[in-house]
Design a protein that fits this description.
By secondary structure, the protein is of the alpha/beta class. It folds into two domains: 280 residues, Mur-like, catalytic domain (UDP-N-acetylmuramoyl-L-alanine:D-glutamate ligase); 130 residues, Mur ligase, C-terminal domain (Protein-Tyrosine Phosphatase, Chain A), CATH 3.90.190.20. 35% of the residues lie in helices and 16% in strands. A hairpin with a 2-residue loop joins strand 3 and strand 4. The longest helix has 16 residues.
Length: 422
């Protein structure tokens, strides 16, 4: 297939998957006439909640009849997901032609795969100068390929936590360093800070962005969202309050992501987003592999009437909010787990307090994942733990009772494999 052949070539242009630097992408974008300078963008940085916040903004903007371009990573089921223009995902031929053109302009110079994908996104996005670009930044933002914009409409800072520590200097694997990397180079426009897991993190963010001249909006200070006694959601900021319908996504943390999306769009003066668009939009959010319930398909057939969820949580912060969601259900919970090798597996699972069984599996097609048997040995503190080599055997082996829940989690790569298999 043409697209896959091009991808294979591009992945060989640099010996490293990640090489934190801005020189290569700046040089390539300069050859492309700096398309990143011609777009209207909202940048989304953070550890968790970036994709969900983008999808909430996208759903609202579509209701308000705005056209959007979207750049996210990693993809879940297929690489085309990363390239949305004019509210449409590029098909294989369109993406192949785009990447082929960028490949020619690059002239075989060393550049990472993510950098050349980002250049391709900027180049295509410049064809739609009136569109709103929703751009998810990668790893640590400061030296991330997306951080070559000179201006934007807003910067969103989602929940920040410990992740990707293997990319930090040996003596600086701390939340303080992560906060600095993610927020020290935010542009001067609007900065919207989402709910953070601790006051300490919020205060450190404030300290880093103190001299940034942007308008700043902090969750629980300048905007918030709560569940009332009458079981409806209520959003409020300095412009007023909105009584919200129940969104079509699960989890309290998703409500916080939605409130950050609303605050962001309301902070941008040139946008005219009315309350009706917000109310309709949050009932149409498309969140792939983020507490996604599988309601039909091959895997759902195996669990019959039991509920089956898949979630790409892979770090401590994700585990914490995921466990909070599980504890809201009065039933036995069974976890199927697959993870990448560079994660803190024991710390991740330490947040799950009341699960009935744990089944570890291999992640197909991921050489950087931890073998399921090895993962089981690392997590032997769990009494009811077992290893199965694939998801089908794992599901079949779980002793579910009526109304039990099964959750597949530990990696976005695993989530993608699961959704494809289903």
């Amino acid at each position: 297939m043409k697209l896959q052949k091009i991808i294979n070539r591009l992945q060989k242009l640099h010996p490293k998957e990640i090489d934190l630097s801005l020189d290569r992408i700046k040089n390539l974008c300069n050859k492309l006439d700096n398309p990143q300078d011609k777009i209207n963008s909202i940048s989304v940085v953070g550890t968790n909640g970036k994709y969900s916040t983008i999808q909430a903004m996208y759903a609202i903007l579509k209701e308000a009849n705005y056209k959007c371009n979207i750049y996210t990573s990693p993809h879940i089921k297929k690489i085309n997901e990363r390239f949305v223009f004019n509210n449409q995902e590029l098909n294989d031929d369109e993406l192949a032609n785009l990447l082929e053109k960028i490949e020619r302009v690059n002239e075989n110079l060393p550049i990472t795969f993510f950098e050349i994908l980002t250049s391709a996104y900027f180049y295509k996005a410049a064809e739609f100068p009136q569109n709103i670009n929703l751009i998810e930044t990668g790893l640590f933002h400061r030296f991330d390929a997306t951080n070559i914009l000179k201006k934007n409409l807003a910067s969103v800072v989602t929940s920040i936590g410990l992740d990707h520590l293997d990319w930090l200097p040996k003596n600086e694997k701390t939340i303080t360093r992560i906060i600095f990397e993610k927020t020290s180079t935010l542009l001067n426009s609007n900065i919207i800070i989402a709910s953070q897991s601790t006051n300490e993190i919020s205060n450190q963010i404030k300290e880093v962005i103190l001299n940034n001249s942007s308008k700043k909006f902090f969750f629980n200070e300048d905007y918030n969202c709560s569940l009332s006694e009458n079981n409806f959601h209520y959003y409020e900021d300095k412009r007023g309050g909105i009584k919200l319908p129940t969104p079509n996504v699960y989890g309290q943390f998703q409500l916080e992501n939605i409130s950050t999306a609303i605050a962001t769009l309301r902070s941008i003066e040139l946008l005219n987003i009315n309350e009706d668009c917000i109310k309709k939009g949050i009932t149409k959010i498309n969140n792939i592999a983020r507490l996604q319930e599988i309601t039909k398909g091959n895997l759902k057939d195996l669990v019959k009437n039991n509920r089956l969820f898949v979630d790409g949580a892979h770090n401590q912060l994700g585990a914490k909010v995921l466990n909070k969601f599980l504890e809201s259900f009065n039933c036995d919970k069974h976890i199927i787990l697959g993870m990448m090798a560079n994660k803190d597996h024991q710390k991740f699972m330490s947040y799950f307090k009341n699960i009935s069984t744990l089944t570890t599996i291999d992640i197909p097609n991921q050489p950087n994942s931890i073998n399921g048997k090895e993962l089981k040995d690392k997590l032997n503190i769990f009494k009811n733990i077992q290893y199965k080599e694939n998801i089908f055997n794992a599901i079949k082996s779980i002793p579910v009772k009526e109304n039990d829940m099964i959750l597949i989690t530990g990696s976005l790569y695993l989530a993608g494999e699961i959704l494809n298999l289903n």
